Amino acid sequence: MTAEREARPTGAPVRRGRGRRPADEVRAEVLAAAGALLLREGMAAFTIERVAQEAAVSKTTLYKWWPSRGTLALDGYFHAVESTLAFPDTGDIRADLTAQVRAFVRLLAGTSAGRVIAELIGQAQTDPALSAALLERYSGPRRDLAVARLRRAQEQGRLRADADPRILVDQLWGACYHRLLLPNEPLTEEFAARLVDNLLRGVAA
Amino acid sequence: MTAEREARPTGAPVRRGRGRRPADEVRAEVLAAAGALLLREGMAAFTIERVAQEAAVSKTTLYKWWPSRGTLALDGYFHAVESTLAFPDTGDIRADLTAQVRAFVRLLAGTSAGRVIAELIGQAQTDPALSAALLERYSGPRRDLAVARLRRAQEQGRLRADADPRILVDQLWGACYHRLLLPNEPLTEEFAARLVDNLLRGVAA
DNA sequence: CCATTAATGAACGCCGAGTCCATATAAGCA
DNA sequence: TGCTTATATGGACTCGGCGTTCATTAATGG
């Protein structure tokens, strides 16, 4: 008697009946809806109830698969931006660093991803599950890539051997996060370039 | 007829009757309760309702004076820690920077202030009122002090004249915030010292 | 083709946000 | 000093999201 056979136009999943459904299908719909909602309206509007509604899925399903709002948001973000994890090595460490930090600044300041990342980091400060996921799946891997590239530069004698690559990462990307999260000063590509410059040349007179 | 004349022991304000009360008195009780709650249980437990209860004050009063949960928390934090804003100038820029960044790391990693600051910055990402207050009353003034000290070093010829002090601030304190907010790596005093070292000497081979 | 399995959806209780209105008290005035 | 007025106050109220429970229904496998 339930005559609910409508074609799904785009984006808006139709309400299905009750009962078991293929997990993959549901998961895909959830991630799509979560990512879209996140980029469109930000973390403030990103509520479990809202995601359930937009994905045409029950809250129970969400709670079954994701431990917290934050982790769901993180998965939605990854699904939406399809981040390409790579750190090219042209042999020129200065050029490579500058290119990477510039690209990062462009991502943060030029797209809606910046706000989302800021809100995810913010949410992580009071959401242990998100914090763990963020470290393991986002900042950790990126940090590792940068450290690896810096280590190679050290081996090639382009960088002082006694400089800790892990600390350099904080002084390059951490500085960008600083301007993202506490925006007293603007986040520009010129800023990115000067970060690299300061560190390589040193600023002592 | 209301026989409610009890001595206020410590910390726990007695319930008063209805009606107007001296604003200063109420404000002091609110800030004390807010600060204590914040340091004791963190931002997750810091709810308007909870503060109202612990300060023995009605929610209406809180909403009348503070635009958001975050700004109330910020005021409570300042009331609790009595931050001493100073940036000594001994003439030795390296020593001064190292001392300041070290002290900052000690504050972040060694006391409960670190968690609170992290949670405030986190909350600010989705709370415009807190964001504005944080920039104007916390990060802004601190940034200005550091920039002023760096400018003096430039005038004295200790620092390259073409280095932007504002960017150096990001590469020193921003790096610390990075390890605070995305704790993939530990936040130690040795880290603080090496931040200064890297920047002053440069890391190019 | 049917029995088993397991995800689903709706409803429920709880809690905190933010608002409204009658009230009691402090402040102002005579 | 005594009264009036102005205003902060407190409790009640609505709204919305969280997280859970339980009967239901479809997918799965023999």
From TrEMBL, chains A, B:
Keywords: DNA-binding, Transcription, Transcription regulation. The keyword DNA-binding applies. Residues 24-84 form the HTH tetR-type domain. The keyword Magnesium does not apply. Residues 1-21 are annotated as: Disordered. Residues 47-66 bind DNA. PROSITE patterns: HTH_TETR_2. It comes from the Bacteria. PANTHER family: HTH-TYPE TRANSCRIPTIONAL REGULATOR RUTR (PTHR30055), TETR-FAMILY TRANSCRIPTIONAL REGULATOR (PTHR30055:SF148). This is AcrR family transcriptional regulator. It comes from Streptomyces griseoviridis. The lineage of its organism: Bacteria, Bacillati, Actinomycetota, Actinomycetes, Kitasatosporales.
